[in-house]
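User: Batch of two.

Assistant: Item 1 of 2:
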Amino acid sequence: MKINRLCVAAIILWVSILSPGAPSASGLQFKAGVGYDFLSYEYFFDSLLVDTLEASLVTSTTFLDDFKGQFSVFYAPDNSRRLELRANYEQTPELIRAKIYGDSRLQLGKHSLDLKNEFDLRHRYRGDNEPGDSYIYGQSRAKLNLALTDLLVSWWQLSFDFVRFDSLAVYNFNHYRVGGKAGLSKMFESLSFLDMDLFLMYRRVPDSLELNYLSAGAEGSFFGFYDKNELDLFLRLEHRNYSSPDNQDDYYRFEMGGRHKVLVKGNFYSRQELDFELALFNEDDLINQDYSRIGMTFQGGIQLQDLGLWLGPDFEYLAEQEKDYTEGGEGYFESGARADLDFMRTGLFLGTVESLFGYRNLKYENDLQSNFTFERLNLIADWNISGGLNFNIIFSAEWEWHENEEEDSQIFLLSTGLKYSF
């Protein structure tokens, strides 16, 4: 793959948007900035797996530790959203990444045609090039919206995407996907929204016929208001059929998610969340096991104009079907206390913090896995410091504490950006 040649082509297209022949400056916006990404994982490593003399050791691995420079340009000729073009360039001490997006809408009376395209290139220009470091990714989507009434829309969508790597490995491979959806969208006078669709997707992997698959299913979602309450639901049913012999890895999967927010009195609310997943594999599948997972959260909180604080218990249960040839399993019951803090001031600051402290009780303990106490912390924030100067941060961390301290683990993810728009 001539990735350098494609890189030059991407830069030429990017520069052409900035050229003197581009539309008037009133439709252009530029952003420049710096950022920092960090990903580290510390875990217990049982040396029996690698046949060494030591009993055990703790391994700390840093997957990502990079400062980066960024520049992007956005072009939209008017406020109708009929055309939007965006190009991003990002460079770290060892990697270059370029992205180009193009969105357009063609209005056909009450009907419309939406086109979305994305091109993503990443290239390692310094250091050892590991499999997966350099790749080209692209996707296109066309969606036709047919207005049946003022509040009911029938839509049809076709999509295509691909990825090509400079070098292949077990966990990264070139592939192509093509698919389609057909659905209905219904708006209600209360600003509630219902969406339903059927989908079909085919993936082809040139280097491994067994990884080809055909996926089909149905989706549905609803977001609604009644009185001062909110209801958010999502359903998905999928059947995936791989090309591997004896129906290996084929499955049916059902997913359901829901959130219900109820006004109790004044500024006090209750909130319930449900997350359910069920997967059924072929009975002769020697690797995969049927499983079901359910998670529930019950919180009470106060919701002010800018601030929201929520507290309550959180539960999760995973059950795996045991087969005659399997021993043990990954089943567990998890319980804890969850706290959420949200703050939003339009045009100035948006932030959310989630903390979950709990205990996971495994159905089967062994030399490789044991019960543990955990803390999971997630933070997302976006702060408009002044004028066009903006700072954003994503931070995620998880700690595990086992009875045997050598089994403790921790993982950290940090991504930050400081950008100036002009």
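Item 2 of 2:
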Amino acid sequence: MNYALQIQKLLIQRDGLSSPNDKIALLKQAINLADAHNDVEWGFDLRLDLIRDEKETSRCDESLPAFTWILDAYDKNPEQLDEEGFLWEYKWMLGSVRRNRLISLEQIDSIAEDFKTRLLRNGYSLRPYYTTKAHLALFLNNLEDARKYIDLRNQEVRDEMSNCRACELDDDVELELRLGNFEKALTVGNSMLTKKVTCVHMPFSCYCTCVKYFQKAGDMTKAYEYFQKAEADLTNLSDTSQISEIGILIRFLTDYDREKAWTFFESHAHWNLNSEDYLDFLFSVSVLPLLASEAGKVLNINPSLEWYREDNTYDLKEVYNFYYEKAKALSEQFDERNGNSYFSEQFAEAI
């Protein structure tokens, strides 16, 4: 069979699947066929599909090497391939390199500048570039820089490469919450929090952020209000990329409704399998308070988890240590990479 027909057959199979993992497996087969026949255009398009499918998971195992290939292929074949066609995915990759402890801040800055160059070359504003800079500042807990970049973002024209309004409002709300400006946060984000503007993960993700910071402030009534909103929206979400938000909900329930916290943990712990470093850290830190106070428990968890036992009976000290060691190691590695102590401070809060 002609390899192009084989690729098309695999894509038809992929379209009938619901699991991102199964879709990715078929796409990898298709990519191997394209590469074996030196078909750059097929390799380019298939890798973009792979990145889009992996975006629905908590992992980034395949996307970074795929995107590196895309950049190299375009730079070698600018007349044959469309640079504009991967700029949206470039934003996602900037998020992934930020979340990877092995990629230095210098490398992240260099990648961001390359993104900036490509945006300008294709006639787009710098609104998405400043958004990625704001995300890095929030990641590093540099709140003054986050404010600066959000202000610069707002001065740029909104175009089709810009994040949607709901996602931008999510950034605005998080910044105000982290600065302790709770009323301002709710006012700024009102149109998104009331679902006048939405996207795939908004306002669910923002509801979880509200839960986190109201809980930290000791306002459990307000935290519960946003927990209820998040829980209602969770029924419509199935992609495992939301594992850090699940961690926030488990952390809240640990203090508010412990039995329900265990239900969330049992149902979602496997979403964290092979997750990106930052997501792995956030989930591990979030579940430590739940695991800390009980010696043994029967849990019905996914068998794919590393610490699964066939008899479903667990020494929670062992499970606690599993997440403790991961969170501790990741906090130290991120702090070394980032040049501050923000991750260690989050780890200390959890224990």
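The mean pLDDT is 96.
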